[in-house]
Design goal:
Distance between the termini: 29 Å
Strand order of the largest sheet: 2-1-5-4-3
CATH topology of the largest domain: Beta-Lactamase
Keywords: DNA-binding, Transcription, Transcription regulation
Domain HTH luxR-type: 161-226
Order of helices and strands: HEEHHEHEEHHHHH
GO molecular function: DNA binding
Organism: Pannonibacter phragmitetus
GO biological process, one term: regulation of DNA-templated transcription
Number of domains: 2
Radius of gyration: 18 Å
CATH architecture of the largest domain: 2-Layer Sandwich
Shape: globular
CATH class of the largest domain: Alpha Beta
Largest sheet: 5 strands, antiparallel
Strand content: 5-15%
Helix content: 40-55%
Oligomer: single chain
Number of strands: 5
Length: 230
Amino acid sequence: MADLAALEALFSQVLADLGFREWAYQVIRAEALPDEKPVILTTFSDAWRDHYIDSGYHLIDPVILKGPEQLLPFTWSGMSFGIEPTQEQKSFFAEAEAFGLGEGLGIPVHGVHGSLAMVSMVAEEETRRLTSMLRCHGEEVHLISLIFHNLARELMSLGRSGRGPISLSARERECLLWLAKGKTRWEISMILCISEETVKFHLKNIRAKFGAFSRHEIIVQAVRLGLISP
């Protein structure tokens, strides 16, 4: 696989062929700090992704908190995990539904070297039909998600070490362009109409992908790779 963008495109196509319209992939790190932003690859809207991150929903999302403990794929509506949702979680569910993410599948991924991730996917189907899709394609999406996880993990590692191609999301590219123009995180947030915390999240992802620590190093790497013009 050439790069992360190509892998994401292929993953999207394979899932679309099975009837799933959107997906999200989130790395699970047991040692993550409470204020650490999650690593998320997704085709969900930028508006929902940014809202999810800004609101810290990865800290209360039951799919993320309890999903990795499961061995098999599950429907969101069918998950209980033996817990009663908190009021905060109920509000989260309502907001997700307002964004068109009221029902979907959770795919727990247990990868190589003990790595963990959760893949979520949604389809234009009612709950009963989605349950049927899970019965028919559960093993397939589980295996496909595991393959995606292991390849994505390898490609992200290559990007961080500088040994392979680096893929930036549209939002990361926007943040990078304004960073190169000398804008602060706050100024970038005002220009893009997103929170400063979200800008911080995207710049952290860029820094990790480039293996860079300073603004200067990020810009030099971006110019060298042809992502921005000098």
